[in-house]
Amino acid sequence: MMENDKAIEALTDIRSMMERSSKFISLSGLTGVFAGIFALAGAAAAYFYSAKSFGPDCIVDHIQAGLKTDVLTFYCVDALLVLTLSVGFGIWLSARKSRKTGQSVLDKTAVRMLVNLAVPLLTGGIFCFALLWHGIIGLVAPAMLIFYGLSLINASKYTIGDTRYLGYMEVILGLICCFFMGYGLLFWAIGFGIFHIAYGLFMYYTLEK
Amino acid sequence: MKNITAGFNKVFESKIRLGIMSSLYVNESLDFSRLKELLDVTDGNLASHVHALEEAGYVFVNKQFIGRKPNTSYTITRNGRKAFQEHIQVLENIIKNL
């Protein structure tokens, strides 16, 4: 009996040390929930702004709306605001959680994870900028989803939980979105809003509760 | 009946050594300060345990200079990997045989 307890304890220690030394465990599921809420708010703001000048059907045809400079500017500012708030909250929550777990926020694993996340993400960001530059508005939302999904898959080696599957889902959603031009805002709200909230809650309740 | 604790590796009896092996098992290599941070132990304590693992041939020590600062990093050896796997297997057998 004693021996059994010892064996269990040793195996638990081994497992936790393997995770602690190779994975970024400080990312909280709540980060996903907040990011999702900001994304939904941002999508709603974008919808109502274009609805003002194009009527309620603009959700189906926001490509037309996006061609107007003021609407496009609003979309860009809106998206950047969502990004800033999400990342800001993510950093704040991670710092808070790492204080609890005793892992330093920016240790080597965290840096490795961020580099793996940033390379495809920045590529995607520049690619989206190029799409805007050439006026191919309809492909911006799917490109964002696809590159974000690829970034998650790439970074998932260094995270606990099922980040990889969130990545796959974003990529699939983005690919579907490519064939439904005009519904970009709707897909964007699902991918960055609903998926984040669902995944964040799932992660929070399975890993942190 | 075969003794289930046969093959239980004495070298891994210490918690700190187990921690060193676990983290080296999943990382290409780790340097001294990173190991110290992960295990939350003193310099002397870590050094002596790492030395024991080195003696056993489970850990490879790599000393080099990064700029002017000396840097010591550790890698798990093939033997170490094998011995650690066997040790985990023994632990699992203990649980299964209850």
Radius of gyration of chain B: 15 Å
* Shape assignment of chain A: elongated
Largest interface: A-B, 19 and 21 residues
> Low-confidence spans of chain A: pLDDT under 50, at least 5 residues?
none
Beta strands of chain B, count: 3
Helix content of chain B: 40-55%
The overall pLDDT average of chain A reads 85
Count of individual helical segments of chain A: 8
**Structural class of chain A, please?**
mainly alpha
Tell the overall outline of chain B: elongated
* Terminal residue distance of chain A: 29 Å
Question: Regarding quaternary structure, how should these chains be classified?
Answer: heterodimer
SSE topology string of chain A: HHHHHHHH
Give a short account of the largest sheet of chain A. Answer: none
Write the topology of this structure.
The complex is a heterodimer of chains A (about 210) and B (about 100).
Chain A: H1 2-22, H2 29-54, H3 62-66, H4 69-101, H5 108-133, H6 140-155, H7 163-178, H8 184-208
Chain B: H1 15-26, E1 30-31, H2 32-39, H3 43-55, E2 59-66, E3 69-76, H4 78-96
Antiparallel strand pairs in B: 1-3, 2-3
Main attributes of the structure:
heterodimer, A: 209 residues, mainly alpha, 80% helix, B: alpha+beta, 3 strands
